Amino acid sequence: MDQVIPTDRTSKEYKEWRVSGLEGSNMTEIHIVLSTVVLSYWLWKCKTAAEYHRNPGSFSKRGLSALVSECVVFFVPMFMALTGRYLYPTIAVLLGGIVYYRRQIPDFPRRHDKWAPDPRAQVFDSSYVAGKVTAKPYLSIYRAEMMLLTCFCILAVDFELFPLEFAKVETFGTSIMDLGVGSFVFSAGVVGVKAFLPRKVDGKIISPTVWSQLMAGMWTALPMLVLGISRFLLTESVDYQKHVSEYGTQWNFFVTLGLLPIFVPLGLCLFSNLRVASMGLVVVYQLLYSLSPIGSWLENAERTGFVSANREGIFSFIGYLSMFLMGMSLGKEILPDAPTFEARRMRLVSVLGFWTTSFISYNLASFVLGIEPSRRFANAPYCFWVAGFNSAMIWLFMLIEEDIDSKLPPSLSRSGRPVGYDVPKILDAVNKNSLTTFLVANLLTGSVNMLFETLLCGVAEAYGILVAYTVLFLLPALIMDKMGVRIRLKPMPKIRTSQRSKNGPPDGWADIEPTLLEFDEMMREEW
Asked: Comparing 362-371, 454-463, 475-484, 514-523, which segment has the lowest mean pLDDT?
């Protein structure tokens, strides 16, 4: 029986039908569109470096002009590319700006004796602190740009100007929004590994214990799970349109994000090698999907009980967990501070090797075995594609940073750079307050859909709403960053270590003190 197409474009049924049965677009188009993300960063980096070298003394005094410049460089290309308008002219303008500003950056003076020690390496190596993990500018910008793309797309898809081939596919295929969902999880894994790294506490290098990792994971998961339950109750109460085949009837993306921090330490109790664990998990999941009745049941089962009604969310969680572990395996290599200048550069080779592994794995699964990628079930090809794309993005961001920062004086090789040189102010605020930004964007998306009939908006009206929406979801992060405020759970009570009783510590204190100190530090640290 043929499906009846709803005729009322303002009805809930039409809005759900509009995003059902989509097949996405090809990877070449997706990667060309998202190349604007790298080009925007490259242009901003060249422009910022050129301005700094032109007048280092007044660089930090830039105010409104710097914010306007960031909006033009990062947001205008995003609007043009993700709405399918003027993509290639946008790329041409970005490339032209890169060439223009790159020529204005002076080269670092060459050493007369090529065998003499590199002064940048000497300063960099001497400032290394074991166990310290400082924020990486290229990683902060990468995460912030992935967040901006996600927030923009979740509302833009409700307008006619957004190409439907960029929206989430029904079951098999690739699209920009499919890639965005996976990138969100992968990038969370890259920085999430910080809680598992050895760190310096009270002058001692301490490795985290399983118990502290699990407690920290539950601490992180709580707000996400609350948001997931709240979102379900809210959408049900207002009869908001819902694409059931995305995650299921009651499940949503917040629930998936909330469960990840809990299952990661539990899984690593069984097998500590992140890369092998992630690959093994997704391969076993794919074998069960392809060689057992589970695959057919996932695609065709009736929604009769909780498991069958939410099978997409429950089973895709296995793939997202594997993807999160892949991100952690990459983060474990690039997140700790590099001990030497040469080690920092060798990380380019390490990330390139990670991308090569992901690329080969995707091609084996997709072209040799004939398995199509599926965001709906987060199967192996989808996980490998997301890992390969994100590792390639990180590698390009690292390469750009290494090229431009090589022109700085040796004294600034590791730290000491002026505010606004390493990370754009807007993106820095988004990165520091990513959870708040994502939550506000979701609330605004629902509000816009209830206040406006988005499918009836013309191009000019749609752009106006999207611009206002972007400003509004950025505003809380900017205000909080200006005030030095971050919304997070109340930290754990401080563990007292300076005061000792006259009788000395109790028996066994030496065994548990490192774990308590490490857990206390984990709860208090800020990204």
From this structure: 514-523
Quick: pLDDT tens for 96-151. Answer: 999 999 998 887 666 555 555 667 777 777 777 776 777 888 999 999 999 999 99
- Closest to 316 (Cα-Cα) out of 361, 251, 223: 251
Residues 6+ apart with CB under 8 A from 142: 187, 393, 394, 397
Q: How many beta carbons lie within 10 A of that of residue 237, not counting itself?
A: 8
Task: Please tell me the least confidently modeled range out of 113-122, 156-165, 280-289, 450-459.
Answer: 113-122
Tell me the HSE value of 402 on the side-chain side, using a 13 A CA sphere. Answer: 15
- Please check the confidence at residue 76 and state whether its pLDDT lies above 90: yes
Residues 390, 395: Cα–Cα separation, whole Å: 8
In 64-158 the beta strands, taken as DSSP E runs, fall at none
Q: What would the two tokens of residue 74 be?
A: 């990062």
> Across the chain, which distance is largest between two alpha carbons, in Å?
84
Q: Which residues contact 351 (CB under 8 A, 6 or more apart)?
A: 330, 333, 334, 391, 394, 395, 398
Cα dist from 215 to 225, 321, 489, whole Å: 15, 18, 13
Q: Which residues contact 433 (CB under 8 A, 6 or more apart)?
A: 476, 477, 480, 481, 486, 487
Q: Which amino acid is at 15?
A: K
Residue 384 and residue 361 in contact, taking contact as beta carbons nearer than 8 Å: yes
Name the phi and psi angles at 327, rounded to 5. -60, -40
